[in-house]
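[recover] target loaded
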């Protein structure tokens, strides 16, 4: 059964850091374009970052603070989040797509992990 399982979310103070992990099972993550999305209460889901064979992309709101990476040997993708702000509070979702470049399409979704930035 194909699964994406996120971990690493939690409560952090403004200015702090978190690293989210997304472990894939039943498929080879390295063959997919991987993305992190987030959805805050009352807002639409938005793509935060994407990594493909062509490189990485970031939403303007997280550029310079977030970094996406993948470890194909561990079948895992990561999102390092630094200098966190209250506006980063959301449920973060991992997503995989078979297309070789970052697009609006998603083949598989994870179940999400909550990130709360608050003092």
């Amino acid at each position: 059964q194909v699964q994406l399982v996120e971990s690493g979310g939690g409560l952090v103070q403004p200015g702090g850091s978190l690293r989210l992990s997304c472990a894939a099972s039943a498929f080879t993550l390295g063959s997919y374009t991987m993305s992190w999305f987030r959805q805050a209460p009352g807002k639409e889901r938005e793509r935060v970052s994407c990594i493909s064979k062509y490189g990485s992309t970031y939403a303007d709101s997280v550029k310079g603070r977030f970094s996406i990476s993948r470890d194909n040997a561990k079948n895992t993708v990561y999102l390092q989040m630094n200098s966190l702000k209250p506006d980063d509070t959301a449920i973060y979702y991992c997503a995989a797509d078979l297309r070789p470049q970052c697009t609006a399409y998603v083949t598989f979704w994870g179940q999400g992990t909550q990130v709360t930035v608050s003092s």
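[recover] notes: The chain has a mean pLDDT of 95.
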